[in-house]
């Protein structure tokens, strides 16, 4: 028995459907397909025909003179297709229902809401802090986009903070890290996050200090690029000295777009790109980040955060409420946020918990709505996908090995929790795995499975609109790179060969590569 060559339609984008030609296949002797037959056997959410279609549409391009089908629709059918402006990252997925749009807008209002210290006449907004980094989610994710380090000491329009931890020292601490019951050991006095703001009547933990040194890189065509290497420290400590072994790691807020679509990627598609022992010898050895799920109490694939420390948008959101703003939710119920037992003055402050509203400062359905909002922010449509220079840059992107980590596309699971996220052809440009990026980018602070030199590959979709949305071009986990070229030149470790290939390019090719990145 055989299946004849025929055509099928794969829904992939607002332009309708994408025609995929299926090749003739033979069935097993029994006449019944097992899931091991055909491509993508891990995709148990798909039929055999689905898997054949998906495998075909995810094939790398063999012709770089034309754009791939639906390549411009970065977020599938939910892609925002309007003219990109300063609000390009704040649109809802275009394929959610009218009723869901209402939930999205309510979630948006909570995302932008300014929380206040307790007690206050605005009781529904009580609970800020006592120690915090921002008064709202939007304060860090300005216009749902990318944060940046401070321009000077008086710059308050930043969205950057320091993570803190110390090495394990006791058997219990080693065991907690080994079992993933903890991702890292907080600094005993200052906790897991350095907080530079505090409610009235309480001293902040201090301030972050950044010092830069400039380092020149000479490219093959003679162009000189200056990279700024940051050094981080803290000053004006409000609660005494820090542990001498404290490890500091900076973080800027990443863009919010496409998070729900990322969560809808089938884990097997991510595992398929993992090669922890570099079995294929290409120098790339990405591996999954395994973290504890607060919802299930079991290990789950870490997808969110610069080191893949959270498995879901909801867990990431609850952690941000608690650590960034000091607001308790049903999933993270401590009303004192990141205050430690060594910060008596912090623990003595009034919390925002009000019995008539619930037992947390942000009771149900606040976290539900914010999670829905964060999960349904649309990815903007790509620009200039047919431009010959952009297509040349795309060919170079693949040719030098960038796509080995920045995996271009996926088709999401048919079993995704939200219908709008199901079976969508998306283009995030990430494998969502941990990679050793070398000493140049190292923070030397392990988190869960991630070592001090490893980072999760960040998605590139929307990166070309950073200046349009956020008014700057500062990239990487700490914003040290002032341009896309600088960001590339900071790559090391597993990405060293790709970086060196860019250094060796002539101006025309390097400009084409950057043009391609700007089109994403």
What does this molecule look like?
- The chain has 520 residues and is of the alpha+beta class.
- It has 14 helices and 17 strands.
- It has a three-stranded antiparallel β-sheet with strand order 7-6-11, with no helix packed on it. The protein has a two-stranded antiparallel ribbon with strand order 1-4.
- A hairpin with a 5-residue loop joins β9 and β10.
- α7 packs across α9 and α10 packs across α14.
- 48% of the residues are buried.
Present the secondary structure layout.
Blueprint: E1 2-3, E2 6-11, E3 17-22, E4 25-26, H1 48-57, H2 98-112, E5 131-132, H3 137-140, E6 160-165, H4 171-178, E7 193-194, E8 197-198, E9 207-218, E10 224-235, E11 247-252, H5 259-263, H6 267-271, E12 290-292, E13 299-301, H7 313-325, H8 344-347, H9 366-375, H10 388-399, E14 410-411, E15 425-426, E16 434-436, E17 454-456, H11 466-470, H12 484-489, H13 496-503, H14 507-519
Antiparallel strand pairs: 1-4, 2-3, 5-8, 6-7, 6-11, 9-10, 12-13, 14-15, 16-17
| Contiguous runs where pLDDT drops below 50 for at least 5 residues | 1-33
Largest sheet: number of strands, sense, barrel closure: 3 strands, antiparallel
**Mean pLDDT, as a whole number?**
91
Helix content: 10-25%
Q: What Rg, in angstroms, do the CA atoms define?
A: 24 Å
Distance between the termini: 45 Å
For the largest sheet, list the strands in their spatial order.
Answer: 7-6-11
């Amino acid at each position: 028995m055989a299946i004849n060559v025929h055509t099928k339609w794969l829904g992939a984008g607002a332009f309708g459907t994408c025609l995929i030609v299926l090749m003739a296949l033979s069935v097993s002797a029994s006449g019944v397909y097992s899931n091991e037959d055909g491509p993508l056997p891990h995709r148990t959410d798909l039929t055999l025909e689905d898997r054949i279609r998906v495998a075909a549409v995810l094939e790398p391009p063999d012709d770089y003179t034309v754009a791939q089908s639906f390549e411009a629709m970065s977020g599938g059918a939910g892609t925002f297709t309007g003219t990109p402006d300063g609000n390009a990252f704040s649109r809802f997925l275009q394929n959610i229902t009218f009723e869901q749009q209402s939930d999205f807008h309510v979630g948006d209002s909570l995302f932008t809401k300014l929380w206040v210290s307790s007690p206050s006449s605005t009781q529904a907004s009580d609970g800020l802090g006592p120690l915090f980094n921002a008064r709202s989610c939007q304060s860090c994710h300005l216009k749902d986009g990318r944060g940046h380090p401070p321009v000077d000491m008086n710059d308050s329009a930043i969205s950057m903070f320091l993570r803190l931890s110390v090495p394990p020292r006791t058997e219990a601490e080693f065991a907690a890290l080994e079992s993933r019951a903890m991702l890292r050991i907080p600094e005993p006095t200052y906790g897991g996050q350095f907080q530079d703001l505090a409610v009235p009547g309480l001293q902040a933990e201090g301030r972050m200090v950044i010092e830069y040194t400039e380092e020149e890189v000479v490219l093959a065509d003679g162009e000189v690029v200056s990279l700024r290497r940051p050094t981080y420290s803290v000053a004006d400590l409000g609660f005494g000295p820090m542990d001498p072994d404290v490890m500091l790691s900076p973080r800027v807020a990443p863009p919010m777009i496409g998070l729900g679509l990322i969560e809808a990627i089938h884990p097997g598609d991510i595992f398929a790109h993992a090669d922890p022992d570099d079995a294929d010898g290409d120098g790339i050895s990405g591996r999954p980040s395994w973290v504890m799920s607060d919802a299930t109490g079991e290990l789950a694939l870490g997808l969110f955060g610069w080191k893949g420390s959270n498995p879901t948008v909801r867990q990431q959101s609850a952690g941000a409420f608690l650590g960034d703003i000091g607001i308790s939710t049903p999933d993270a119920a401590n009303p004192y946020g990141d205050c430690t037992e060594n910060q008596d003055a912090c623990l003595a402050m009034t919390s925002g918990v009000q019995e008539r509203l619930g037992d947390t400062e942000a009771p149900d359905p606040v976290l539900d709505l914010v999670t829905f909002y964060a999960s349904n922010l649309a990815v903007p449509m790509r620009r200039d996908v047919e431009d010959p220079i952009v297509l040349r840059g795309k060919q170079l992107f693949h040719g030098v090995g960038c796509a080995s980590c920045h995996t271009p596309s996926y088709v999401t699971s048919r079993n995704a929790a939200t219908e709008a996220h199901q079976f969508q052809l998306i283009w995030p440009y990430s494998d969502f795995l941990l990679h050793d990026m070398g000493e140049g980018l190292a923070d030397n602070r392990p988190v869960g499975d991630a070592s001090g030199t490893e980072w999760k590959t960040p998605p590139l979709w929307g990166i070309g609109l950073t200046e349009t949305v956020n008014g700057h071009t500062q990239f990487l986990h700490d914003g040290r790179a002032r341009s896309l070229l600088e960001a590339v030149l900071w790559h090391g470790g597993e990405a060293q060969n790709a970086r060196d290939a860019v250094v060796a390019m002539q101006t025309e090719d390097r400009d084409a590569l950057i043009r391609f990145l700007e089109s994403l």
